[in-house]
Amino acid sequence: MSDAFADVEDLALPALGADLRTYSQRCQRARAEVEQQIARVEVALQTALGSARGGLAAEQVRFDQLRRSAEADLNAAAYGLSRAQSRLETIQKLTGELLRAVADYQPRARRFDTVLDLIGRAAERELDRAGAALAVYQGAGPGPGPGGAPVRGGGPGGPTQPAGFPAGHYLVPLALIDASDSAVTGPESFGKGYSPYDLEWAHEAFRAVVAPTLAAGGTIEDLRRRDAAEGRSGARSYADTHAGFLGGDAIALDARGGSYTVLNGYHRIWVAQRMGLSVVPARVSGP
Questions:
Q1: Is 26's pLDDT higher than 90?
Q2: End-to-end CA separation in angstroms for the chain
Q3: CA angle, 123 as apex, 121 and 125 as ends, to 5°?
Q4: Between vectors from CA 84 to CA 83 and to CA 85, what angle results, nearest 5°?
Q5: How far apart are CA 195 and CA 172, in angstroms?
Q6: Domain tally for the chain?
């Protein structure tokens, strides 16, 4: 491979990764917009149902009052009662159709989300491998951090500190972490908090969104705004991912003794190993 061709690939790989992230983000925004539209229609229908029931009750009262009068003409009252009943039945029918459509849409949307996540993770891992191979070919050492973020410190194969990381937090190669005393053996080792799939999503979100945001000078407030725009909350939100990896519950390692022993974060490390990741963000203590 020529140096010129290597330069082209060096530019193309980050661009392709950015395109994949943009596509995923657009899909997520579209999904959030659909959910918002469904919610608005549900509210409108419930409001209309309440109004129709009230209108029918009022027409029924009017009809009953006129019926008790011997001289009253009930034709107009009966017509009004019939129209109110028809309006209520129409709105009830529309509500039923919406509920059936939502019931059909939701499992399809969840399947789409799953496939999109799987494809995105697989593509990003392949890009990481291609980028690493290219860096080796060019003699570039460990290369850039997540999302192309520049890194500071750490020799080849050692910890690096991407731009925007808090003091004491690094990307640490999994190969250097001694997790031999871990009690995590599989999905059955996870409790009721985060599932392995939630943590897989978090690892990918940290690399694809959180780290690049920090490298560009962004903060957790920027991540919260993005969560709001995409309708994200809880375990699968960027702000929660930031807090989980760079906050008080970060993966914690002790560098004393020539190796990195685990103080906290066995579950996230196990998931990272299963995903085939090369590094994890961690807070490091010791020399």
A1: no
A2: 41
A3: 70
A4: 90
A5: 23
A6: 2
Q: How would you classify the pairing of strands 161-162 and 151-152?
A: antiparallel
Cα–Cα distance for residue pair 145/234, rounded to 1 Å = 26
CB 56 within 8 A of CB 84: yes
Of 75, 108, 138, the last residue of a domain is 138
Interval 59-90: pLDDT, tens: 898 888 888 876 667 788 888 889 999 999 99
Pair 168, 182: CB distance under 8 Å: no
Return the DSSP state at 71: T
Q: 239 and 224 in contact (C-beta within 8 Å)?
A: yes
Q: What's this model's pTM, rounded to 2 decimal places?
A: 0.49
Are residues 223 and 188 part of one domain? yes
- Give the mean pLDDT of the chain: 79
- Residue at 158 is within a domain: yes
Q: Which two tokens stand for residue 250?
A: 């970060």
Give the residue from 187, 171, 166 showing the smallest Cα distance to 271: 187
What is the length of the chain?
287
Counting beta carbons within 10 angstroms of the beta carbon of residue 275, is it exposed (0 to 12), middle (13 to 18) or buried (19 or more)?
middle
Pairwise CA distance, residues 111 & 58, whole Å: 46
Q: Last residue of some domain: 138, 165, 184?
A: 138
Closest CA to 250 of 259, 260, 240, 258: 240
143 domain-assigned: no
Answer for the pair 255, 286: CB distance below 8 angstroms, yes or no. Answer: yes
Average pLDDT over residues 154-175: 81
Q: For residue 175, what are the domain limits?
A: 148-285
Domain identity same for 110 and 153? no
Range from 43-57, 108-122, 184-198 that averages highest in pLDDT: 43-57
Whether residue 79 is found in the same domain as residue 208: no
